[in-house]
Design a protein that fits this description.
The protein has a single domain, classed as 2-Layer Sandwich (Translation Initiation Factor IF3). 31% of the residues lie in helices and 38% in strands. The chain has helices at residues 46-58, 63-86; strands at 17-18, 27-43, 91-102, 106-120. It has a four-stranded mixed beta sheet. The termini are close together. Mean pLDDT is 80; it is low at 1-12. Belongs to the UPF0145 family. InterPro entries: UPF0145_dom_sf (IPR035439), UPF0145_YbjQ-like (IPR002765). This is UPF0145 protein SGLAU_18745.
Length: 121
């Protein structure tokens, strides 16, 4: 079975299909492996914090912080996929992100979901 032939929109860039849904049309869950997660904590650069503080006075997007958050989320997701793959999964269902402040020094991003083995119906 190849996940790369999944016909539901964009072709996955990985051998592990990650979806926010609880199932994948055309596939059945053959085995539930369990929870997997990818975690990263990023500190804020002092210059970007000062710039963000000034920008918040006038309004608008905080582009530097947006870029950092996107990179952080991508890293957390990559770690989730690595963990799922290492445990023998080819899919992650019910995928979510959780973002929290980490002791006022940075942002913690956790990507999590349920690792499964998917088989074509």
């Amino acid at each position: 079975m190849g996940i790369e032939d999944y016909g539901g929109g964009q072709v996955p860039q990985s051998d592990v299909l990650v979806v926010t849904a609880n199932d994948v049309p055309g596939y059945r869950v053959e085995r539930v492996i369990g929870e997997v997660f990818g975690l990263t904590v990023r500190s804020r650069h002092l210059g970007s914090q000062i710039g963000a503080g000034l920008k918040s006075l006038v309004g608008g997007e905080l582009r530097g912080l947006t870029k950092t958050l996107v990179e952080t989320r991508n890293q957390a997701m990559e770690r989730l996929v690595e963990q799922a793959r290492a445990r023998g999964a080819n899919g992650v269902l019910a995928f979510r992100f959780d973002v929290t402040e980490a002791a006022d020094v940075g942002t913690e991003v956790c990507a999590y979901g349920t690792a499964v083995v998917l088989a074509r119906e």
